[in-house]
Amino acid sequence: MTEDKSQPYDGATPPSPEELRIRVEAPREELGKTAEAPEAKTDVKARAQEKSAAVRQQVAEKTTQVTSQLRDKATHAAQAMQDRTPGPVRAKAAAATEQVREKATTATEQVREKASTATEQVRDKAVHVAEVARDKTSEPVREKASQGMRAARANRGQLVVVGAIVALLLVRRSRKRR
């Protein structure tokens, strides 16, 4: 009797149908990831929106921090001056404190306006870059990427299950080697 060598296997017994399914599903999962990569890279608008949201958050945090620090220092300085100075000087200190508070509020508003303008500029540039990228990408490539994304989305649950099975098998295999 001759042995069938049309399908390679690493052990003494041929692979089970489950193992064959896993061998087929792994490349499919990788293909799904590969198909997602060009679309994710060309989605400049989404990446720009994420970046502008992060910048807005940073600006808001920094503005709040600086405003708080300025108010604390102004209050502390006013209190120190009030404790050590006569009445007329206290009135001037209070006026100066109020001026500092007003300037801090104005500075905060200016920073917010600039952040808003910068965010809008980034958004406009992102839209422009996305349009240029879309125009320069050939139709067959866009269609293949779109098909791959649809297939990956349609089989999301199965891909997760196959990924979990592959992970478990890899863990099991690594434990056997120890």
Provide a descriptive summary of the structure in words:
It is a single chain. The chain has 178 residues and is an all-alpha fold. The protein is 87% helix and 0% strand. The chain has five helices and no strands. The chain has helices at 17-42, 44-84, 87-136, 139-154, 156-177. α1 crosses α5 (156-177) and α2 runs antiparallel to α3 (87-136). The chain is elongated and about 100 Å long. The two termini are 37 Å apart. Mean pLDDT is 78; it is low at 1-6.
Topology:
Blueprint: H1 17-42, H2 44-84, H3 87-136, H4 139-154, H5 156-177
Distance between the termini: 37 Å
Oligomer: single chain
Number of helices: 5
Tell me the number of strands. Answer: 0
The share of residues in helices is over 70%
| Beta-strand fraction estimate | under 5%
State the main characteristics.
mainly alpha; disordered N terminus; 5 helices; 0% strand; single chain; 178 residues
In short:
This protein has 178 residues and is mainly alpha-helical.
